[in-house]
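FAQ: What does the model actually see?

It sees only this:
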Amino acid sequence: LLTESGGGLVQPGGSLTLSCTSSDRSFASEDMAWFRQSPGKEREFVADVNWSGGARYYADDVNGRFFISRDRQKNIVTLQMTNLKPDDTAVYYCNRNPPDGNPWGQGTQVTVSS
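And it is asked to produce this:
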């Protein structure tokens, strides 16, 4: 079971930190990623961290603004988001990468608005 938290309402240029926890210890040895979905759009990739935490990949439109990290001991994956823009408004989800049919959590809503 994946549980996302940390979302909220923030003004443009603001910051938020999202967290993802799992009761499944096997995730600690898998690549994990954050995805997001805006109303009327397909879910899209945001950022990935490999199993060891030593490699990270970002979508072009968040590169340089978002930072993904993980704590394998605590089985937590974090997404630090800075310089947020209205286009970042979405429900954010975490999952293994690729998801391969793994169930999605409820996500956490991020709204960027003045």
